[in-house]
Write a structure and sequence with these properties.
This protein has helices spanning about 1-20, 55, 60-75, 75-95, 120, 155-220, 230-260, 295, 300-320, 365-430, 435-470; strands at about 100-110, 140-150, 325-335, 350-355. It is α+β, with helices and mostly antiparallel strands. The chain is elongated, with a radius of gyration of 40 Å. About 60% of the residues lie in helices and about 10% in strands. Belongs to the outer membrane factor (OMF) (TC 1.B.17) family.
């Protein structure tokens, strides 16, 4: 009889499984494309500066001290570390779902039933003591243990744990990406600060030159060689140049405060060496080959891990169409009086049950979850491919930018030299009445602008070196 019942249950389970399999929505998963171009600039050299540690790449001790402080105190980075802890706890939670749940239970209660009921009439006589009725109201005391367990025959719970592991690893890569971005942002702000310092020095130097020229013009006016208009024009130019100081000083303050914010501290002066802006740049940029980005860039690895987790989510959602097998058991003591509570075997109780549960009707929620899981997997693939394309473009842009900036800097250096010499020439010509004051003014203005542009170009060069390092995935290791 028992064997016959088991066979019936097994048959029902098979029918449920076949029904679930036949009625499952049809979805199409997307496979990622990992192909990348063979090189950035027709070079097959695999030497990659992205693998260099940041302390070896950024040799300025002041900059290194700032980065080191930021890696300890930056709030965004510390928030990311807590996200890693949350992801790690999620693994523990998912692992606990496929292990047995065991608990203990204790309770006490009282029940009053009607005398003229089947239970009340039955309680009128008891075999505990012949002729003595069961207590009414009837106390109830219970002490026991219970356990439940779902047999993970479709790997639903194990796949959920694996997905949690992938997301935990993705959160670590997210932290690494924050580190690379943080280092690059600090370095870029630092070089911007150095450029502002240099521009401020240029302004100070130019004020001296213009003030000297103003004195010459005043002497020329006294000698009736120029008019008051020339004097006023030179005075206006000196005042305009002096006003530039305050704009630059405000930019310096804001840049310092931005660096301090990244370091997680209140505004304070930033130690720096102005001459660091003129540090020699490497003759060649070793960008390696594009395929190295797949292992060097934290954002690419993060996207890949999230894609793996999304694939596992599909398996988890798919398993919910299949029957689940659960086992429950309990053991303990139950009696109406503490006196009889631990009398064995009279007060002993136990139970053991198994169940097979399968969704048959109104499975819309399960279908929607399955379709959504597939859609999220496709999203993850597109995000992964987009991240790869973006990474390649960033490196290619910076490689090209470094080359073009080097050529631009050489030409601007020649322009600055020519205009610096023209200041002396224009002053001499003006003294000898061979040039008017407007030529002197325009020459000084052009020289100032060219020096500003030269410093700006140098800053862009230093930033490009920072950005290529970040684009190649440098800094987190």
């Amino acid at each position: 009889m028992l064997k016959s019942n088991l066979l019936k249950l097994l048959g029902i389970g098979c029918v449920c499984l076949a029904y679930a399999a036949c009625k499952m929505p049809a979805v199409t998963q997307k496979t990622e494309n990992k192909s990348v171009p063979g090189s950035f600039n027709n070079s097959t050299d695999t030497t990659n500066l992205g693998t260099v540690k940041w302390k070896s790449y950024f040799t300025d001790p002041n900059l290194a001290a700032l980065i080191d402080t930021a890696l300890k105190n930056n709030q965004e980075l510390n928030i990311t570390l807590q996200e890693i802890a949350i992801s790690q706890n999620e693994i523990t939670a998912r692992k606990g779902e496929y292990l047995p749940f065991v608990g203990v239970r204790a309770g006490a209660g009282v029940e009053k039933v009607g005398r003229y009921t089947s239970q009340g009439a039955g309680d009128a006589t008891t075999e505990i003591k012949p002729g003595k009725e069961m207590p009414n109201p009837l106390p109830d005391f219970l002490i026991g243990a219970y356990a439940t367990w779902e047999a993970d025959i479709w790997h639903k719970l194990h796949n959920a744990k694996k997905a949690a592991v992938e997301r935990y690893l993705a959160s670590i890569e997210g932290r690494n990406f924050v580190i690379t971005s943080l280092i690059a942002e600090i370095a870029n702000s630092y070089y911007e600060l150095l450029a502002l310092d240099n521009q401020l020095k240029i302004v100070d130097s130019n004020i001296t030159i213009q003030s000297n020229a103003l004195e010459v013009v005043k002497q020329q006016k006294e000698a009736a060689r120029v008019t008051e208009l020339a004097v006023r024009k030179f005075e206006a130019e000196v005042l305009n140049t002096k006003s530039l100081q305050y704009g630059i000083q405000q930019q310096i303050t804001e840049t310092e405060n931005r660096i301090n914010f990244l370091l997680g501290r209140f505004p304070q002066p930033i130690a720096r060496d102005d001459n660091s802006l003129n540090a020699a740049l490497p003759a060649t940029i070793q960008a390696g080959i594009p395929s190295q980005l797949l292992s060097n860039r934290p954002d690419i690895k993060q996207a890949e891990l999230e894609m793996s987790a999304a694939k596992l989510d599909i398996q988890v959602a798919k398993a919910k169409f299949y029957p689940s097998v659960g086992i429950s058991a309990g053991v303990g003591w139950n009696a109406f009086s503490p006196t009889y509570l631990f009398r064995t075997p009279e007060s002993l109780l136990y139970s053991l049950a198994g169940e097979l549960v399968a969704p048959l009707v109104n499975r819309n929620a399960i279908k929607a979850e399955y379709i959504n899981a597939n859609a999220r997997q496709i999203q993850a693939v597109y995000n992964y491919e987009r991240t790869i394309v973006n990474a390649y473009a960033e490196v290619a842009n910076q490689v090209s930018k470094i080359g073009n900036l080097a050529k631009s800097y050489d030409l601007k250096s020649q322009q600055v030299n020519a205009l610096t010499e023209s200041i002396s020439i224009s002053n001499d010509l003006f003294k000898n009445a061979r040039a008017d004051y407007m030529e002197v003014l325009l020459t000084q203005r052009d020289a100032l602008e060219s020096k500003f542009e030269l410093v700006e170009t140098k800053m862009q060069q230093m930033k490009a070196m920072v950005n290529i390092y970040q684009a190649l995935g440098g800094g987190w290791n």
